[in-house]
Each structure stands twice: as structure tokens, then as C-alpha cells.
Design brief:
The complex is a heterodimer. In chain A, 34% of the residues lie in helices and 16% in strands. By secondary structure, chain A is α/β, with parallel strands linked by helices. Classes of the chains: A alpha/beta, B alpha/beta.
């Protein structure tokens, strides 16, 4: 499927202190990033794609010759694809606080020689994009032709357009919200509680221990996965089918396929994700609330200069269409250039990583047309 | 500009008449903009700043492919996101008769638009009357090709109905354009002849406040 070929994750270290929203000044931060395509001479053909909660900088391509699993948005990134690497210079970074190359709680604190654990400062969505902006500056990018992201990536894209209005020419906000709903905070809270109440979490200090808070983290992931699906998706995927058996066992082992799926998702997650990172990143998402931060949504978007494309999915109940429409209404009120599409999908929130046909058509048209002739290179 | 037939509804729409009404550089909102044909035409020929609202996903994609800014939405839910008199023109082209709540849609468009352009097929057109009289079936035509059970045109009206409606809601009729295939007549007063002879009507209106 991938036609980008082998890509290598690169690293850039920001040595200067970055002031977080909490007031803490923090350094150094190493950021893992990947790029696809070439930056043009005018340095204005860059598109930043931003991953969701547990993603990484590996958005497209493969890591080695027999790599079976291409990057998380490989379907959309590559030559002649939606984010066409013949035209655009596509960049993806791993989020601040993450555990896939960017500095986070599992990184070594140079002052102590030990992992930060929960001494890592709590950060916000705006802090994460300030870090990304440093990487873009380092790469010599003069302006972003577009910034695109789904879910938490959409929040960051939105914040990018707000914090750097002159830098962002367009923003693609997919399956996202301008403030996390209490329902979504509630699910995150269950996830965090499950990690914190795992005795192996040990107040965040477990990196040199034999036993890690795997149980807590895997349950957090199971809860997360429920929110990424929807009733229809669950019926389609599992129904009430039993897992490798004909009849109920009348005990508390796994009976249903849906149970088995969630357990599997939980188990494979602990191999690639850090429990503390999960705490920090979900917290950043919980704090995301543009209305409170700027007094009103209108105030938040008031100075933006980007053209916006907002996409939601009709079965997404985590970040429902009603929340996308709030963003769209606000932008319309402010006379900003905005287009909106609600894609029909049986896949729930996960649709932004699954429903490529329609999504691709919409984004391709938007990118082709929105600032025709404005790429100089 | 020749007449254009929208594929989705088979309605005969004279876009050039609407285009003639609109001044250069106007700000235009097209409610139920379909595949964006009219907006694109206005953008190219009148340099308008245009937005469209369209309910169908496929049509929204067609608009985006034309480089238009379009919002997927249901105009029956109102235009809450738009402030009063924020557009020079709000267009409701061949859509009034398929709105669930035309009264509310009209109220909202008149609030948002300094002027509004409404077009609809005239159900009192003589051919329709004649067919209904002779066959006793719900009439069908090129403009109204659907069966009673699958038609999106659930609020059919006549030119006379529109005049009476405008009066009851204090809507000011700035211009009326009555078209058949061969002729175009204009007038701001109700005329029984137009109500019989015109296949379609286009009204330029504003709220009488």
C-alpha cells in the first residue's frame, strides 16, 4: 500500500527553555519527527499533520523493507495521494510528553540521570504546538500551507491556527472539538484512575522496576477503544458472537468476541505506550477548552487568517458533529472562510483513520483549491 | 449563459437571470446550493464572495471540487450561525418548495440577507392546471418530474400564493420575474396572466422593516 518507501524518524533538540501554560519553564526537549516530500524554494509548501492521542511521528512509509505496517496516515500521504508529496512537504512530529521519541515522562531528566516520571511538568495542547513550531522553524518552513489532524490532532491544528495566525494558511480539523466534553473527560478519568490504582504504577516511578503498571494501562486502553467505536461498529465487528466457543462457559473467562478484542487491544498497547505519557496527554486533552481560555469561541478564532475545513462523522459520539458545528458556526459568524462536511460512516470516532474514500476526496479538493497559486515554488 | 438543468432534481433553472440581478463583488449565501453551479458562475462572472449550504454529502464534495466554500447543513434548522443582514443576497433557488418549514426558512433568510432571491416552479402554470384537470392525477412536468410519493417538492405553491404570503408577512417584493421557455416578464404587482402563463417565478424580496 505504501508508496513512500522507507523513512527514518529524525530528532531535533530544543535547548532553549519553553514556557508552559502552567508557568513552568522547561528544557531540553527532543522532538521525534518525520518528513515526506521536498520543501520548495519559497518554503511555503509544508503541511503539518498531527497525530491523535497515542500516535507517533511515523505518519507514512515503512521503517524497513519487510515492515508490514506503514505509518498511521499512509493511506493519505504519498506521491499522488491526498497529501501529495510531489507537491507538498509533509511533516509529522511526536507530541510533547509522548513516548515515541519526543521528550516525555519516560525520558531521562539530565539533572538527575533518572526518568522524569511524574516530575515531568503538566502541559497543555498549546504547549505541544509551541514545541512543534520550533521544529518547523528549525526546518526553515516560512508558513504552513496547511495543518491537519484528527481528534487530539485536530485540537492542535485549531490551536496552531489561533496561536500563529500569520503562519497558518489553512487548517483541516477532523473529528475534533473546541473543548472536551464532560463525557470525554469522564472516560479519560476512568483511564487515568485505572493506571494510578495499579500498584505497579508506584507513583509514576516504575521505569527500573520489573513490574510495570501494565494492567492499569491496558484497562485505560480498553475504555479508550470503547469510545473510538460506536454501537453500529460493534455490531458489525463483533455482534454478540462468542470467542472460539459455541456456548457460554458460565464463568468469568472471556466469552464474547468484543471482550477478547478489547483485551487484545489493551495487551498490545502496553508494549508500545508509557503509562505516565497516557496520564499527561489525556490531561492536556481534558484541559483543552478554547471558550474558557479565550473568553469565548469567537474570541479564540477572532484573529485567525487560515481557511478552515471541518470534517465530522455522523456516528462519532466522542466528538459528535454538534461540536464540529459549533466551530463552524463560530467561524461563519466571524466571516472566516470555512467549509464543513459530515461524513456518513458506521465506524464512530475511529472513522478518521478508516474512512479514506470520502475523506480523501474532500481534503484533496480543499487543498487543491483553497489557495490556488499561492505556492510559489 | 444557457439554461442549466440540475441533475439532482431535473428542475429547469435559469441561472443567468439570477446572475443578472447580482451586483459585482456582492456577498452571497446560496441556500441549498446543490453542486455549486450557480455559486461558481457568480464567483467567475461577478466576483462575489460566496458561501453555500447544502444537505447532501455528494453535492458538498462537488462544491469543494469547484473550489467553493460550502457548509453541509439543513436549512430547515435555520441560519443561527449567521448574523442579521450579513449578506448582500441570500438565494433560495428552486428550494422553497422542498423545505419542511418554508415559513421559517423565509423568515431566517430575510433576517440574514439584505435582499433575498427566491425562485420556485409555479404550480398554477396552465399546463399543470390542464394536466390535473384532464387526468385527475398529481401533475408531472419537466420541472416537476416526481411521483406524489417520492417528490422532494412537498410545499408546492403558485405565484398568487407567494404574493399573498408576502403580504401576510410584510415582505417587500422588489421585483418579480416570470418565465416560460420563450418569454420573460417582470412586474412587482400580481397579475393573473403571469400566474397562468409562467412556468417559474423569481422574486427579489426584502423584509419590510
Amino acid at each position: 500500500m505504501s508508496n513512500i518507501g522507507i523513512v527514518q524518524t529524525q530528532y531535533y533538540t530544543i535547548d532553549e527553555k519553553i514556557k508552559f501554560e502552567s508557568g513552568v519553564e522547561f528544557s531540553p526537549i527532543t522532538v521525534a519527527y518525520e518528513t515526506y516530500g521536498q520543501l520548495n524554494e519559497a518554503k511555503d509548501n509544508a503541511i503539518l499533520v498531527i497525530h491523535a492521542l497515542t500516535g507517533d511521528a511515523h505518519a507514512a512509509g515503512i521503517k524497513c523493507q519487510d515492515d508490514k505496517k506503514p505509518g498511521w496516515w499512509d493511506a493519505l500521504i504519498g506521491p499522488d495521494k491526498t497529501f501529495d508529496t510531489n507537491k507538498y512537504f509533509v511533516v509529522c512530529t511526536n507530541i510533547l510528553g509522548g513516548c515515541s521519541g519526543t521528550t516525555g515522562p519516560s525520558s531521562i531528566n539530565p539533572q538527575t540521570g533518572k526518568p522524569y516520571g511524574i516530575t515531568f511538568p503538566v502541559f497543555t495542547i498549546e504547549d505541544t504546538i509551541k514545541v512543534q513550531k520550533k521544529v518547523l522553524d528549525y526546518l526553515g518552513i516560512k508558513s504552513l500551507y496547511s495543518v491537519a489532524g484528527g481528534s487530539m490532532g485536530g485540537m492542535q491544528a485549531m490551536q496552531f491556527a489561533i496561536t500563529y495566525p500569520d503562519f497558518v494558511k489553512s487548517a483541516i480539523l477532523i473529528a475534533t472539538t473546541s473543548r472536551l466534553s464532560p463525557q470525554a473527560i469522564a472516560f479519560n478519568a476512568v483511564g487515568r484512575n485505572s493506571i494510578i490504582s495499579d500498584p505497579n504504577w508506584n507513583n509514576g516511578d516504575y521505569y527500573d522496576k520489573e513490574l510495570k503498571p501494565d494492567r492499569g494501562l491496558s484497562i485505560a486502553r480498553m475504555v479508550g477503544h470503547i469510545t473510538y467505536l460506536c454501537e453500529e461498529a460493534m455490531y458489525n465487528k463483533f455482534g454478540r458472537r462468542l470467542q472460539n466457543k459455541e456456548h457460554y462457559d458460565f464463568n468469568f473467562d472471556i466469552d464474547f468476541q468484543v471482550e477478547s478484542y478489547l483485551q487484545h487491544q489493551g495487551q498490545i498497547f502496553v508494549d508500545r505506550f508509557d503509562a505516565n505519557s497516557y496520564l499527561y496527554i489525556t490531561k492536556a486533552v481534558d484541559y483543552f477548552d478554547l471558550e474558557t481560555k479565550y473568553g469565548s469561541l469567537e474570541n479564540a478564532f477572532k484573529n485567525t487568517k487560515a481557511k478552515f475545513l471541518v470534517i465530522s462523522f455522523d456516528t462519532d459520539w466522542l466528538f459528535p458533529s454538534s461540536q464540529a458545528k459549533e466551530i463552524v458556526s463560530t467561524l461563519m459568524k466571524l466571516n472566516k472562510d470555512v467549509s464543513y462536511c459530515e461524513i456518513k460512516s458506521p465506524c464512530g470516532h475511529d472513522a478518521f483513520l478508516l474512512e479514506y474514500d470520502v475523506q480523501s476526496k474532500i481534503i484533496t479538493s480543499f487543498l487543491n483549491n483553497h489557495i490556488k497559486g499561492e505556492i510559489n515554488g | 449563459m444557457d439554461n442549466h438543468y440540475t441533475q439532482s432534481q431535473g428542475l429547469h433553472v435559469n441561472y443567468s437571470l439570477i446572475s443578472d440581478i447580482i451586483e459585482n463583488n456582492s456577498k452571497v449565501l446560496d441556500l441549498g446550493c446543490g453542486d455549486g453551479y450557480l455559486l461558481k458562475l457568480l464567483k467567475d462572472s461577478k466576483n462575489i464572495i460566496g458561501n453555500g449550504i447544502e444537505i447532501s454529502q455528494e453535492q458538498v464534495i462537488s462544491c469543494l471540487e469547484k473550489g467553493l466554500s460550502v457548509i453541509q447543513g439543513d436549512i430547515d434548522e435555520g441560519l443561527r450561525q449567521f448574523s442579521d443582514k450579513s449578506y448582500d443576497y441570500v438565494i433560495l433557488n428552486q428550494t422553497l418548495q422542498s423545505a419542511c418549514n418554508p415559513d421559517y426558512v423565509m423568515e431566517e433568510m430575510l433576517r440574514v440577507g439584505k435582499k433575498c432571491i427566491v425562485s420556485f416552479p409555479n404550480f398554477a402554470y396552465w399546463r399543470i392546471r390542464f394536466k390535473f384537470f384532464i387526468t385527475g392525477n398529481m401533475p408531472k412536468s419537466k420541472v416537476l418530474p416526481f411521483e406524489w410519493y417520492n417528490t422532494p417538492n412537498i410545499h408546492l405553491l403558485t405565484i398568487k400564493d407567494f404574493f399573498e404570503y408576502a403580504k401576510s408577512r410584510n415582505i417587500k417584493i422588489l421585483q418579480g420575474i416570470y418565465t416560460t421557455k420563450a418569454t420573460i416578464k417582470k412586474g412587482i404587482q400580481y397579475s393573473i396572466f403571469s400566474n397562468i402563463l409562467a412556468e417559474e417565478a423569481i422574486f427579489i424580496i426584502s423584509s419590510d422593516k
